[in-house]
Write a structure and sequence with these properties.
Layout (H helix, E strand, L loop, with lengths): L1 H13 L12 H13 L14 E6 L22 H16 L3 E3 L10 E8 L2 E6 L2 H5 L11 H8 L17 E3 L1 H6 L1 E4 L2 E5 L9 H12 L1 H5 L1
């Protein structure tokens, strides 16, 4: 029992350091929450761990134009300051280590390229891909996204509410071989290809919603 408590405390400090358990819960309720989290501890991860992956939900992209693709789909890299260049190199290396990106070989045919920029928000850098041109040539996926007010109405009678965030959720979805070729980014670092679904493409939200609905059909209908 003492060993279990040690493991539990380590789990809470390592994995759930950002978890916020309501102070309004009784000690018994709080302990029940901790026990449940510890029981399913393998489902939790931190930013410095390998990404999980959703199987059998590969993302496809269908364009409204045929090959050879129009020239606007092959875009040039944006200029970047020395600070942005350094940050971009660091971020791309991180995504490659996570298996989100791969470097495109010099002998590979490249038909579609998207430029990227680096932005800072609260001193935290973020790589933004300018998929606007690709999105205009992508056939939209019309899968319904839940409306916020409907979701709040469903939650209005709940006694307990738990909110969990999926670690880099979009990146947990693999891409088809065809979609990868359409999701190649270009910068001063060179050409890179997304292996997992990026943020910014027009159908990312609808695909993610379909995947969640497929994985948790009963939970979402209750």
């Amino acid at each position: 029992m003492q060993v279990k408590n040690v493991h539990k405390e380590q789990f809470l400090s390592d994995k759930l350091i950002e978890a916020q358990i309501s102070p309004q819960l009784t000690p018994e309720m709080k302990e029940e929450v901790i026990e449940t989290l510890f029981q399913y501890r393998e489902a939790f991860a931190s930013d410095n761990e390998s990404l999980g992956a959703i199987k059998s939900h590969e993302v496809e992209i269908t364009l409204n134009v045929e090959r050879p693709y129009p020239p606007p789909l092959r875009r040039s890299a944006y200029p970047a300051s020395p600070r942005a260049r350094e940050a971009l190199e660091s971020h791309i290396n991180e995504l490659m280590k996570l298996g989100v990106l791969r470097k495109v070989g010099h002998n590979e045919e490249v038909e579609v390229t998207t430029p990227v920029i680096i932005t800072w928000h609260n001193d935290k850098l973020r790589m933004v891909c300018d998929f606007r041109t690709l999105n205009t040539h992508t056939i939209p996926d019309r899968y319904p996204i839940p409306r916020i007010h409907e979701t709040l109405t469903q939650l209005s009678k709940a006694i307990f509410i738990t909110n969990m965030d999926s670690l880099k959720g979009f990146h947990q979805n693999f891409l088809t071989t065809h979609a990868r070729k359409l999701l190649r980014i270009i910068s001063h670092c060179g050409l890179y290809e997304y292996l997992r679904m990026p943020f910014g493409i027009i159908n990312s939200p609808s695909h993610y919603q379909r995947m969640i609905k497929t994985l948790f059909p009963h939970e979402l209908s209750e």
